[in-house]
Amino acid sequence: MRGTFPSQEISKLVKDGAVSSTGGISAEQIQPSSLDLTLSVEAYSMTGSLLPLGGEKVRDLIERFARYPINLRDPAVLVRDNVYLVRLRENLRLPEGVAAYANNKSSTGRIDLQTRVICDRNPRYDKVPEGYEGELWLEVIPKSFDVRVRAGDSLNQAILYAGRDILTHKAMHDIQGGKKKTTLLYQRDGQPAPAASVTDDGACLMTLDLDQDIVGYVAKKSLKPKPIDLAAICAHDADDYFEAIKRPKDGALFLRQNAFYIFSTYEYVSVPPEYAVEMLPYDTSAGEFRAHYAGFFDPGFGYGAKGEVKGTPAVLEVRPYEDDLIVRHRQPVCKMAYEKLTAAPDKLYGVGVKSNYAAQRGPRLSKFFKPTA
Which domains, ranges and CATH numbers included, belong to the chain? Predict the structure, then answer.
């Protein structure tokens, strides 16, 4: 059946040996429509970022371009603006027709920690081809802060699928305010967003919210605070790493080139059980900045058990690349693409599943920081 696999199908792939791990795969790693991937003990400092060519293995690249090995059996510090390659504990032996796609976890995206999966004989980041058999490696680049990691830490996640079934423009219109009477996008007052929020390619258009007391945060990259320990939840003082941004008086903000910002969307997203969502960049013509790292929203996000939650705002990780930028309230910043699962999952995000951002409102910082006032 065409679509992205829910939790019970991921569990079946694990049971059948299509997904295995040197450390074993725990029940907590299996999310409603994704799998948390974990670091092994084997890591390397690299001279730069690179991909294997058609006939190369990742270990061929390590042999040629690694600076020195790192053993993650004990915690180690990864220094910002350096490139590292870490073998993941998970190995794949995918059936014919089944592929995988990886992305940052929300918690790592919110500390500007870039991760990208690479695999043998595949010159593409994050995309694992159908029927792939072999090791998985993770390129890790801390962009704003040093981080402390060890084997077993989870920095990214993957979806598995037999052909992704992305909803079309017509299908989205039938759902959002249409014949199916299901709401995917809400306004802040709890009312459904207008159907005009659906773009021509079928995605939901999301805009920037600069009308709240704290509209966002900017990383204090000029300072050198202690490394962020990825095993220490709610343990770091946010003021040591981020500066809060108050509501602009004229509704506009000046963003510095290569600075890292946390914002949130004006619209509230709801993901019913039969769907998953990927956040996508809006349009390069709308500004040269990356709108996000973490891209997956599991079934149940902003939905609850039976649709009682009227959406949850999405958090954006924004970085202007080529120029300084001026952004304004309700400026389009990203899109939400909905896709069908092969079946409803046997668990939902925020409903009996440990979740850090189910109730987020506004520009929420990563789980590694103590709650802000």
Answer: 3-162 (2.70.40.10), 166-340 (2.70.40.10)
